[in-house]
Specification:
Blueprint lengths: L22 E4 L5 E5 L2 H9 L3 E2 L51 E2 L11 E2 L50 H12 L4 H25 L3 E2 H6 L2 H9 L7 H11 L7 H24 L5 H12 L4 H33 L10 H14 L7 E6 L3 E3 L2 E3 L4 E5 H4 L33 H18 L4 E2 L8 E3 L4 E3 L3 E3 L1
Parallel strand pairs: 2-10
Antiparallel strand pairs: 1-2, 3-7, 4-5, 6-14, 7-10, 8-9, 11-14, 12-13
Length: 477
């Protein structure tokens, strides 16, 4: 059942499955799976090598959740895996996060302890599949590709086998090692002055123009692409062009196949030229570092390097833009009293972590893994071949660890799973944190009386491949 866009709940208010022991469920395409919702259980699945992103060759399509050897009966039948439970595993800057179409629940879309069907009928929570594309936050989102496979067969950075998002084992480790050195906290700290410069310039323009202003048009949709262009040494490339490529590289079925193909071909040609140029004339930019690291490692096909550059340049920027816009929506609608405190450095840092932890950037709730060996999660036996659907949003609200009414300005009691964990932990974690923290802190410093121009107006949503975020945020001060 489709839901009008203006009636969609904000992403900080999704109706997520209740945390509980692993339990059988059925994905939207009929594939049986095990639903994992508690923090420690989710972390185990994400870090245990017996659970992999890619389905083993010839593996069962999740039949273990319903097979004769399952500990918890309740979902009959199985799938041969040909259709894959999730059409295209999508994710964070490293590809975590998955586009399960819908939410776990019964007829009303609410989480069902006995194993509900993914996709509720009343449109609550993360319903509206077919209208809303997206991925879970962090694993799902920040710095990642999204969207899932298209019916017309067109590939993007989330569905092409050459992409880092769809690899496991030694190939994935080799490609990941190529990039991860550029995204360590120390490396990102060196880029902070660049981020601060971009934020400062955008805020200068916003303040000079005077109220009212649109924070989406003037800040959230501009900042990540401007930062990416600067970090990758693409200062001569127009932001609009990079945004167009981002939409094509992460496109779902709502974008015409001809447009996707043309954009992908254009970007591939651009990336090939860019990589060749940085080999001849390396600089201090991110692309040069990636090329040098890849050449030192050896054995990395140029196609994989092209997809890596594309994923970092395009889809990561789109995800950060969505996360920042949704954070501002929450602060200005639910916590206007907290806004002035963001002008303080440390409170702003804690608030950034809390916002990333609690607010998804898209409607899809799950990241999936496939059990290559029999494993046990919280005393529940997960047979080899099973599909496991991890709800990071529920895990990040596990009452065993996280209070129901947390303090926005206090440290989290446990590390967030918003960026995933384990071998597919989001590469762009620290860069995303830096951009969002800097933007919120500087904006609150410059405009301590910032508030929505029309607080009661319904939110108009922008639907991206990995995100759902406000189309506009009209503010005054």
């Amino acid at each position: 059942m489709s839901v009008p866009l203006t009636q969609l709940p904000p992403l900080h208010a999704l109706d997520l499955p209740d945390p509980g022991p692993p339990r059988p469920t059925t994905l939207r395409d009929g594939t049986p799976a095990w639903l994992v919702t508690r923090y420690h259980d989710a972390r185990q699945v994400l870090t245990d090598p017996r659970f992999r992103r890619t389905r083993p060759p010839g593996g069962a399509g999740g039949g273990g959740a319903a097979g004769e050897d399952a500990d918890v009966p309740g979902v009959a039948g199985g799938s041969d895996g040909g259709g894959a439970a999730l059409r295209g595993v999508v994710g964070g800057s490293d590809g975590e996060g998955a586009a399960v179409r819908g939410i776990v629940g019964g007829s009303d879309g609410r989480g069902a302890a006995g194993g509900g069907v993914v996709g509720g009928s009343d449109g609550r929570g993360a319903a509206v599949r077919g209208i809303v594309g997206g991925s879970v936050p962090g694993e799902g989102a920040l710095g990642g590709a999204g969207g899932g496979a298209r019916p017309d067969g067109a590939l993007n950075v989330s569905t092409d086998p050459a992409s880092v998002y769809n690899q496991d084992g030694t190939d994935h480790q080799r490609l990941r090692r190529t990039a991860q050195g550029a995204f360590t906290p120390r490396a990102v700290a060196q880029w902070r002055p660049w981020v601060e410069t971009v934020v400062g310039r955008l805020l200068d323009d916003l303040v000079a123009a005077g109220p009212p202003a649109d924070l989406v048009a003037d800040l959230t949709s501009v900042l990540p692409f401007a930062v990416t262009s600067r970090l990758m040494g693409l200062d001569g490339l127009g932001r609009e062009r990079l945004q167009q490529w981002a939409h094509c590289l992460t496109a779902d079925a709502t974008v015409p196949a001809e447009q996707v193909a043309a954009g992908q071909q254009e970007f591939a040609a651009f990336a090939a030229t860019l990589l060749a140029d940085r080999r001849r004339r390396p600089g201090e930019d991110l692309v040069s570092r990636l090329v040098q690291a890849a050449d030192r490692a050896g054995g990395i096909p140029e196609e994989q390097l092209t997809y890596l550059v594309g994923g970092l340049a395009a889809s990561g920027s789109d995800s950060v833009a969505g996360a920042l816009a949704n954070s501002l929506l929450y602060l200005l609608t639910e916590r206007p009293d907290a806004w002035p405190r963001l002008a303080e450095e440390e409170p702003a840092r804690h608030a950034t972590e809390w916002l990333l932890h609690h607010i998804q950037v898209g409607d899809d709730e799950f990241t999936t893994r496939h059990a290559v060996d029999t494993a046990e999660i919280a005393g529940v036996r997960i047979p080899a071949g099973s599909t496991v659907a991890v709800c990071l949003g529920s895990a990040n609200r596990d009452p065993a660890l996280f209070p129901a009414s947390p303090d926005l300005f206090a440290p989290l009691p446990a590390p967030t799973l918003a960026f995933g964990a384990g071998p597919h932990h989001c590469l762009g974690t620290w860069l995303a944190r830096t951009q969002i923290h800097t933007a919120l802190h500087r904006l609150a410093t410059r405009l301590p009386t910032l508030h929505l121009a029309t607080p009661t107006a319904p939110t108009q949503w922008r639907l991206g491949a990995t995100t759902r975020s406000p189309r506009t945020l009209r503010v005054t001060w």
